[in-house]
Amino acid sequence: MSHESTDPQGGDGQGGDTLVTLEGITKSFGAVQSLRGVDLRLGPGEVLGLVGDNGAGKSTLMKVLSGAIRHDTGSITVGGKQVRFHSPADARAEHIGIVYQDLALCDTLDVASNLFLGREPRKGPFVDRAEMHRQAAEMLSTLHVRVRSTYQEIGELSGGQRQAVAIARAVSFQPKVLILDEPTAALAVAEVRQVLRMIREVAQQGVGVILITHRLQDLFEVCDRITVMYEGQSVDDAATADLDIETLVGMITRSNTTTEEAA
Amino acid sequence: MTTQVASPQQQRDLAAQPSWWERVNKATVAMLGVTVALFIGFGMASPNFLTFGNMSNLATQVAITLIVAIAMTFVITTGQIDLSVGSTVAFVAAMTAELLQLGLDSSLVIVAGLLAGLFWGSVNGWLSAYQNIPPFIVTLAAMSIIRGFALLWTEGFSVPIDRRLFVAKIGEAEFLGFSALAWIALGTAVIGGILLSRMRFGRYVNGIGAQEESVRRAGVNTRRIKMITLMLTGLAAGAAGILTAARLGSGSANSAEGFELTVIAAVVLGGTNLFGGRGTIVGTVIGALITGMIANGLTLMGVSPFLTPIVTGLVLIAAIWINLRGRSLAQLVSHLTKRPT
Q: Between the CA of residue B313 and those of B70, B261, B267, B291, B331, what are the distances in Å?
């Protein structure tokens, strides 16, 4: 995987250079200030955990980064150039992919149709189904997604399989940044392992992954670094290796804060 | 852990098409069984039932219902409904007769009839897909309005059509023992089947019925697709209106009363899910055959013709009951009357 990101700002992320930098992002909805200055950086091949209590602004921040909403002030730098997203299509053009919690799949369509929804391969005016299923099988085996057949309907799959299909779909757009919103919520233990393994595999291909989750043990399993948000601000940023679960809980709840944080 | 890449053989297995039995819509198979049972039952009850003449007759009787039911399959698969088709049939039938009386050429009248159907479909589609009014409400109102226009125009009279005109001849034409109507219906079914199962449009129609938001996020203009499906029922009802006038040799604003129920019954009987997401054209053909066969068989057995609407209504209830598959009728009502998006 090669990245043409020439990076003038020089982050100190894992990969040496920085894929995405967010600086001083703010966003208000009427009188409610939802984001009050967020900084975040992500390197290629890095898995970044984004944590914070409910209402800390994680989802809003990710909607800004995926182009679903526009931020008020602050800057987004992708691959060394300043960008401003007006729509999800703009973010997609910068190779930023997102898998929402509701997965955006269609229950009554089969796995292959879901993977290719909106961009089905065609032969003349017809959908080339053989080709679609062949490519789908290839996509799924590269990522070790286990389904019985690409003809299985999404509604028949387990939660973990659905999540895996949704991630495979996002990966097929060849993103440089992949945002995952609570991918392991409500999954069985074995399925959580499967999804986490998939996240590592995606990151190994050089994709920067942002993982939003409430399951702190998952963060320790896959993340290189963790950014903590509190009341619309990014308050902590630390390598996972330097953290333990109690310290992290303290950072999220700000219950026993002894250090002074400047946003 | 295991990091071996799947072999090409495993990949082929993954993409292998499952058996016919796994792919097929089970509700449709059940209805195919019912069709066969009805064939045998009526065949034994009435010696005239299983004759070629009666089969050809049955095909003609089913044709007009089937043409509209094919289009209705798309509407119901997206999770919508169109109650106005009967009124559109009456409107176009009356319009066909009126325009022919004015001396317009048959070809012009046919084009005008199809355009009128398309127009009413567009009105329905625009109001429901772009103005977010539930299609159940829009088409219920349209049902009253469209027939109202037809009544106003004809003042309630049945308008005769000259037998020598081309339009009237369509109603009597036959090829290979089957009427032109039956052939047109067959053609519509083939086109509908290809559109629903082989083209992107059909994928999106199914997808919208399952999770519209997912299809929209995939970059598909779902409003446009929903509007097009309602335009299809309008167009099909327009064609059905012309054919109704052609067959009866007159156009009346009172024709095709309760037609929408027969059409919806045919679609639902065939296994298309009333909640959307799962549509089958083969099923609709079977469903239309069942409704037609019941009417035809009962007539041959010499029961009162007034029994037919009763039986059709009962069949509709039974079909919906089977179709609900564990969900309640209240859920269906709230599904059909909720605001889109």
A: 20, 8, 14, 10, 21
> Does residue A148 sit in helix, strand or coil?
coil
Chain A residue closest in CA terms to B17: A151
Cα A53–Cα A54–Cα A59 angle in degrees, nearest 5: 105
> Considering the domain A10-95+175-251, what is its CATH architecture?
3-Layer(aba) Sandwich (3.40)
Which pLDDT belongs to residue B156? 86
Q: Which residue of B has its CA nearest to A131?
A: B15
- Determine whether the interchain pair A141/B5 forms a contact, defined as Cβ–Cβ distance below 8 Å: yes
DSSP B57-74: HHHHHHHHHHHHHHHHHH
* Residue A259 clears pLDDT 60, i.e. is over it: no
Residues of B in contact with A151 (CB under 8 A): 17-18, 22-23
Counting one residue from chain A and one from chain B, the pairs whose CB atoms sit within 8 A come to 94
DSSP B27-66: HHHHHHHHHHHHHHHHHHH-TTTTSHHHHHHHHHHHHHHH
Per residue in A122-151, pLDDT (tens digit) is 999 999 999 999 999 999 988 888 888 999
Name every residue in B having a CB less than 8 A away from some CB of A. 1-2, 5-6, 10-18, 22-23, 194, 198-200, 203, 206-207, 209-211, 213-215, 217-220, 273, 277-278
Q: Which of A106, A130, A133 sits opposite B210 (nearest CB)?
A: A106
User: Angle between the B222-248 and B52-77 helix axes, to the nearest 10 degrees?
Assistant: 150
Residue with tokens 């469209």: B146
Q: Which residues of B touch A128 (CB under 8 A)?
A: none
Percent of chain B with pLDDT over 90: 59
Option in B2, B12, B203 nearest A120 (CB)? B203
Positions in chain B whose pLDDT score sits under 50? 1-4
Other residues' Cβ atoms within 10 Å of the Cβ of residue A215: 17
A260 to chain B, closest Cα gap in Å:
42
Residues A133, B17: C-beta atoms closer than 8 Å: yes
Parallel, antiparallel or unpaired: strands A225-230 and A47-52: parallel
CA distance B274 to B129: 18
Q: Which of A21-30, A54-63, A81-90, B13-22 has the lowest mean pLDDT?
A: B13-22
Q: Which of B23, B215, B219 sits opposite A106 (nearest CB)?
A: B215
One-character DSSP codes across A26-85: EEEETTEEEEEEEEEEE-TT-EEEEEE-TTSSHHHHHHHHTTSS--SEEEEEETTEEE--
The CATH 3.40.50.300 domain(s) of chain A lie at: 10-95+175-251
Q: Quote ipTM for the complex.
A: 0.83
Q: What pLDDT score does B82 carry?
A: 97
Please list every residue in chain A whose beta carbon sits closer than 8 Å to the beta carbon of residue B219.
Answer: 89, 118-119
pLDDT given at position A1: 38
Confidence of residue A261 (pLDDT cuts 50, 70, 90): very low
Domain coordinates in residue numbering, chain B: 50-257
